[in-house]
Fold:
Amino acid sequence: MTSRPAYRRNRIAPIWVVAMALALVLLALFCAHAAYAQQNLAIAYISRTDDPYYEPHRGYTGLQLIDRHPALDGAKLAIRDSQITGRALGMTFTLSERALEANEDPATVVSQLRQSGVAQIFILDLPQRELLAVADAAKGGDILLFNPRDDDPLLRGKECRPDLFHTISSLDMRMDALAQFVRQRAWDRVLVLEGPLPEDHALSSAFQGSAHKFGLKVVEVRPFVPGNDPRQRELSNIALLTAEANYQLVFVADSAGDFARYIPYQTHEPRPVIGSEGLIAEGWHWTFERYGAPQLNQRFAKLTGRRMQEEDWAGWAAVKAVVQAATQTRSTDAKALKAALLSPEFQFDGYKGTAVTFRAWNRQLRQPILLHTYDAVIAVAPLEGFLHETNTLDTLGLDRPESGCPG
Amino acid sequence: MNCRRRVAAIGALALALTSGHASAKGTGLVFVSNEKSSTITVLDANHHVIDNFPSCARPRGMVFTPDRMRFLVGCADDSVIAIYDVATRKLVGRIRDVPRPETFALHPDGRHLYVSNEEDAEVTVYDIETGEQVAAFQTGEEPEGVLATPDGKLVFATSEAANIVHVIDVASQKVIKDILVATRPRRFALTPDGKELWVSAELAGAVEIIDVASLSVTGEISFRPKGFRREEVTPVDLRISRDGKRAYVALGRANHVAVLDVPSRQIVDYILVGHRPWGLGLSSDEKTLYVANGLSDDITIVDTENLKVVTSVPVGQVPYGFLIDDQ
Structure:
């Protein structure tokens, strides 16, 4: 302290001066600490309790043919995988779960979680109507949303949303992958068998679109109806369904899966089967043995005790994308992360050989598609020979000109 | 897990480490680990296959013991590091319960083996004389390349999944730095002056250069052989010559090996080899480069003076790496 006369009068500083000085010192210490403290990046996983999507689809005599699992396990694995990256960045990555009760409105809950500072980043494991309601309510805000489950091409086209990123592959991406495979082998004449459900029709239509795109010939689309009614024999008997047509391959659209599994070896002609049976197109498979995939599969199996599926990969990829964006920006702000996800420098390792990126026009994750049987990956699309002016991954699914997403 | 700290196969190890010195030029044999057929192929100096013997399961990284009488092989599917006799090619010892070893580096003390445990996000350290695990370091997921500096002060390890190069300080036995690098870092090479650490970044299609003094990334070299897209260039293994002038980088899906002038960091040539080259080996006279082509089950042998391919030799399934007994 200087010894100017004005201060000399108070040799002992009043108590409040001391207190203030102390407070200033403490504040300075606190601020310095805060600047070096770990930044936390919080992700919330939103789902619905008793979501019918995950109800076990019981088949006849106790068979369960469809075994769906929420993308949550994949997201958890990615959080665990990212802890050391966080150590290097001085960040922590956390995942919270929120399962909505029947009377809760998802848009309201997400908005509350955001405003109360719980998270700005949400993985939405919700039915399509609710997914869109959340995205609509959030529009333009400091929020980042991921879809790890819904494969409807509409969400990548007319019904796209500016804050909504898709890590699950879309139906048309997968059908394009199958069509490339068929085209590459020149097994061009395809008989399509279509089941009675709306999902079967969507699957069949998507494949027909891809067939058209890659120059395959759909010789006929025949409806089938599971059952033993003798009056409907031509709709349920596989030999009859596959007779009297000139084709090289059968595409079966059976979302329930209970009919398709009987088609191989029962066709009238010796023909391979693709679609819902035989050769299947998906974003991930537990037997994939290239590009580091065995390590990811083994880590997942160790964590969950089950085989990693496409939705698990999509949940994993959503967290992985966020962590990569945070690494690039050193930020936890949703707006900054969103911009990073769409920047030309952004890419991450999806364990599928090629680094994966988001399509700027509809925020779909560009990714290779695996064509697999029960226990082997036969090919990975995009297949050799299918070229694109900028990125061969864009031969799969909606490319910029046809997306129809307003931006 | 407690079992990891278990002492194992000490008797066999003692046997493995009691021999004298090899002849000055070695046997001239080249050993190739084949990770899918679980075999080790042996070639003579004239590039003829003279043996192809079954090994432990999924053999990958290999290293000589300091006396060059034995070599160690990391076998992930058996969780074992197997020890073979160079002359007889017989199994003479095992270090057991090494969780999924991929590859490793022997510290210049000749005793401590730093092992990347691919599925456990750890680098573990084994005393090869006792077979005992003496240390473990937490890493990012999928640790892979390991390198110990010749002065013995630092050990580097990559984490493929976390895009990190971990720096272990040997004296304090601590990870002193996590260096963030480009996507999927795989293997290392150190310039002979010890100043630059080169690390391949597989999915970035590049080699990043780390300044060893400051432990920070100071440069990057990207590869783009003619006719390949960026995503098809996936560099993995790399070697720098003893005079510090030349480097070789295996470019994976681009099916080429890049040849570089190290001081100028310029690419001199791209040599067409087999399908998905990863592993590299350089003879001690540095006149012969061996390239393991993982997806064509063969190796390519390159004359480094004229940068021409001498021959390709079929080996086992998915060849991983080399050991050359020519010193």
